[in-house]
Specification:
The structure holds two protein chains of two kinds.
Chain A: E1 7-11, H1 20-31, E2 35-38, H2 45-55, E3 59-64, H3 69-82, E4 89-94, H4 101-107, E5 111-113, H5 119-129
Helix pairs in contact in A: 2-3
Chain B: H1 8-20, H2 23-32, E1 40-45, H3 52-65, E2 70-76, E3 85-87, E4 102-108, H4 120-129, E5 134-138, H5 148-152, E6 155-160, H6 167-170, E7 181-184, H7 192-203, E8 222-225, H8 234-247, H9 251-277, H10 283-294, H11 300-311
Parallel strand pairs in B: 1-5, 1-6, 2-4, 2-5, 6-7, 7-8
Helix pairs in contact in B: 1-2, 1-4, 10-11
Classes of the chains: A alpha/beta, B alpha/beta.
């Protein structure tokens, strides 16, 4: 594990306005020692990919409660791949049915966290799975 | 783009290396430094919530209309307890995704006091060498004395919000003294005009003592009114930035550049000294000296002399 802080982008793709979860997680990861870039509501996949590229984050965390995850999340993964951000860990949270998880993982989402996940669980997962950089 | 061939991912990775002060970063900075020095470095500082990020977003919009490329370094504080940080400045600046001539980078202060992170100067040099026309350096929300940005920027803009203080606040030493341009933002709020008038009265009238004899003298900043959220007053601010830059080829600008060079070299020298004091050869001697100070067996001045002698 590098001794520098892990840098995480927390983004809300799509049009739902429920940002409480994203803000709680952003704050919680801050308290776990992460550097969290928070970009706010109503982000397009292009905005998220641009932010991930410019910020050189280790993790992109996506919060979505609108039901549009099967459209938006694969598109974000594809844009990240097009920018050659293959070593960025992609996680998702919000309201995502279990049945959709395999397809999302196939599309490039590394992990999906459902309701009830604790911040400590997310932090431990990120620390264990973030891709090492030179 | 001059350096890095316009590769945005390489630029982003290099900025990370600079933040983490890796050997790669040092080698790159040595190579890039001669290519830097062309961009207009603009510092944006002011209290939390005064509208720095919103103003930066408005400035980006105007610059892009004029076809100029712009990079932003947005610094937010790190937790003194966990080392974590919430970097939220991008929230206001997300309209430029996909525009290759806008590059926004958030930086955590990582325990550095003064309103910036210790790597901000080096990061600005990288963006400068990468060919951006204008580099906006947004500090953490500042109080009265975080003036470090003034040494780093060619032009320092200090934001004030309406009704934040009376004339006495305006004549206190510190942040307002380093302003090249003072902006009263939230110009649509009650009291904005009066705040601007008070600042104008107290700042513009600063006596130009010691002119020409090389002694430092107070600046007489322009005071402008903006409403960053609507863009009102932003064209006037850009014009003021241009005027300041055009006027700044004289001795003031030379003094700023010298101060910047000094700040950069001192920071590196201090860092080198610190890492030598903690290297395997000196680590235990350093620790015992520090312990002696903690126990009041040694005074801090003698300890500093001893540590300096140790590494010579």
């Amino acid at each position: 594990m590098p001794d520098r802080p892990i840098k995480v982008l927390i983004a809300k793709p799509g049009l739902d306005g429920h940002d409480r979860g994203a803000k709680v997680l952003a704050r919680g990861l801050r308290d776990e020692g992460f550097e969290v870039v928070y970009t706010g509501l109503r982000q397009t996949p292009e905005m998220i990919a641009t932010a991930a590229l410019q910020e050189d984050v280790d993790v992109v965390g996506l919060s979505i409660l609108s039901g549009a995850h099967m459209t938006l999340l694969p598109r974000i993964c594809r844009l990240l791949q097009e920018e050659h951000l293959d070593d960025v860990l992609v996680t998702a949270g919000g309201i995502i049915p279990d049945d959709d998880v395999p397809a999302l993982k196939e599309a490039g989402v590394d992990e999906v966290f459902g309701p009830g996940t604790t911040i400590r669980e997310v932090a431990d997962y990120l620390r264990a799975n973030v891709h090492p950089r030179d | 783009m001059a350096a890095l061939g316009g590769d945005r991912r390489a630029l982003a990775r290099l900025l990370t290396a600079v933040e983490n002060r890796t050997p790669v970063a040092e080698a790159a900075l040595r190579e890039l430094y001669p290519k830097a020095g062309r961009a207009h470095l603009v510092g944006i500082t002011g209290p939390p919530g005064s509208g720095k990020s919103t103003l930066v977003a408005a400035i980006i919009g105007r610059l892009r209309e004029a076809g100029r490329s712009v990079a932003v370094l947005a610094v937010d504080p790190s937790s003194p307890i966990t080392g974590g940080a919430l970097l939220g400045d991008r929230v206001r600046m997300q309209a430029y995704a996909g525009d290759r001539d806008v590059f926004i980078r958030s930086m955590a202060a990582r325990g550095h006091a003064g309103g910036l992170s210790s790597a901000t100067g080096a990061a600005a040099a990288v963006l400068d060498a990468a060919g951006f026309d204008l580099i906006l350096i947004e500090t953490v929300g500042t109080g009265q004395s975080e003036v470090e940005v003034a040494a780093m920027a060619d032009t320092t803009v200090v934001l004030e919000a309406p009704e934040m203080g009376d004339e006495v606040q305006a004549i206190k030493a510190g942040l307002l003294e380093v302003a090249d341009i003072v902006v009263v933002n939230k110009g649509d709020r009650p009291g904005a005009q009066r705040t601007a008038a008070q600042l104008r009265a107290m700042l513009v009238a600063a006596p130009k003592v010691g002119r020409g004899d090389g002694r430092p003298r107070p600046k007489a900043p322009e005071v402008l009114l903006t409403t960053a959220a609507t863009g009102e007053g932003v064209p006037q601010l850009l014009a003021a930035l241009e005027r300041h830059r055009a006027a700044g080829q004289g001795s003031d600008a030379a003094a700023t550049r010298l101060a910047r060079a000094e700040a950069q070299v001192w920071a590196i020298a201090a860092e080198r000294l610190r890492s030598r004091l903690h290297d395997p050869t000196h680590r235990s001697a350093t620790a015992s000296t520090l312990r002696a100070v903690a126990d009041h067996d040694l005074d801090p001045y003698a300890a500093a002399d001893r540590l300096l002698a140790d590494v010579e």
